[in-house]
Amino acid sequence: MRRRVWMAATAAALCAVAVASGIATGATSGGLGVVSFSATYSGKATVKVADDVADISAQGTGTGTVIGASAISGKGKGDTTKQPCVPFTGTGEMSANNGSATLQFTVPAGSSACGDEPGKIFSVSGRANVTGGTGALAGATGSLKMTGVYDRGAGTFQIKFSGQLTTSGGGGTVAPAKTVLRISGGLKNQLRFSKKALTAKAGLVTIIMKNVSGAPHNVAIRNGTTAKSKLIAKGKVVKKGKTSVVKATLKKGKYRFACTVPGHEAAGMWGILTVK
Ligand SMILES: [Cu+2]
Asked: Has residue 9 got a pLDDT over 60?
């Protein structure tokens, strides 16, 4: 009897771990629309049994298709009166090591952990229902199949998740960064900007240029670092005291910002914008 309870607890622990793994997988797959994914995790699980209820706590690490290196944690409860397969339910969360996404899930009824004859090795099978996420997995939903093995003696587990996740509209991707840069143009009536180099994060980049000279100026962004690079966007040409604003959604790379009033760029009114 004692052994059985123990087995049940172990199974529950294993299940919890499996759930956590599933979450991690979902995060990896994150993206717009429906994403197929698979992921595997391993870690340690602890189970405490009292009054036929197994309290499960599991934590592990692993990798997934989209989420990459990530950690998972789960909690659950198992019914140790059922043998050799202990039904369990639980909740869990996974999080990308680089902070780009998290995924929350529940383990619904129908999941179980079945022990072998000596009650040392348990096979876990069930599902992890994704209830939400953040970052790259914002609004994620879906049901993942989970299978795994729990080694009671070692207190370790290995689990695999597979299935599809649906992420919500624009929320399915990490919110792009927004960078606002302020410069002035024409200081001391020279054909120069106040800065020769600017740095921004990939995403929406806005350059606000205040004209401080008597000549008209603007600010524009070229898709490259030379004066011949194609213009991506340009702000209005403005008089002294006014601001010219240019906005563009940029990927990592090097760009050129310049004044497009004829002759100004050639005279030195430009700089390099590095997007990281
Ligand atoms: Cu100019």
From this structure: no
